């Protein structure tokens, strides 16, 4: 029986989460990509809390023109800006089972350019 795309991505995501875990000093930058939108959040897995989050549905990004890749880059820079405001410079990147390509890569590059180290 063939594995669906969703089942494959879920298996990859669970393998990643065994290795990648965030702390208060170095939180996990988790990325969720849907067909239309992209979201990123900084998570402290020890406490089980979200430190900060950004998405393409935020008011600062939703009103701007651009394709999905450009909006992903905007989300990356916004999450880096919010992380700096919270006093965070280093993160662990969690691509959420998606390939490090396209919108995921755009977001990561923009976050690096914004000052996050991972």
Description:
It contains four helices and four strands, in the order H-E-E-E-H-H-E-H. The protein has a four-stranded mixed beta sheet. Helix 3 runs parallel beside helix 4. The chain has 118 residues and is an alpha+beta fold. It has a single domain, classed as Nucleotidyltransferase, domain 5 (2-Layer Sandwich), CATH 3.30.420.100. The relative contact order is 0.20. A hairpin with a 4-residue loop joins strand 2 and strand 3.
List keywords for this structure.
single chain; alpha+beta; Nucleotidyltransferase, domain 5; globular
Distance between the termini: 38 Å
Number of helices: 4
**Ranges with pLDDT <50 over ≥5 residues?**
none
Structural class, judged by helices and strands? alpha+beta
Largest sheet: 4 strands, mixed
Pattern of helices and strands? HEEEHHEH
CATH class type: Alpha Beta
Characterize this entry briefly.
With 118 residues, the protein is an alpha+beta fold. 41% of the residues lie in helices and 19% in strands.
Outline the secondary-structure elements:
Elements lengths: L4 H15 L8 E6 L4 E7 L4 E7 L3 H4 L5 H18 L6 E3 L8 H11 L5
């Amino acid at each position: 029986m063939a594995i669906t795309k969703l089942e494959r991505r879920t298996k990859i995501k669970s393998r990643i989460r065994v290795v990648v875990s965030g702390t208060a000093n170095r939180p996990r930058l988790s990325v969720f990509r849907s067909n239309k939108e992209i979201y990123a959040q900084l998570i402290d897995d020890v406490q089980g809390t979200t430190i900060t989050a950004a998405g393409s549905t935020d008011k600062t990004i939703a009103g701007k023109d651009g394709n999905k890749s450009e909006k992903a880059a905007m989300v990356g820079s916004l999450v880096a800006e919010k992380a700096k405001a919270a006093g965070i410079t280093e993160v662990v990147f969690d691509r959420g089972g998606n390939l490090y390509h396209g919108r995921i890569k755009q977001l990561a590059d923009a976050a690096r350019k914004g000052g996050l180290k991972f």
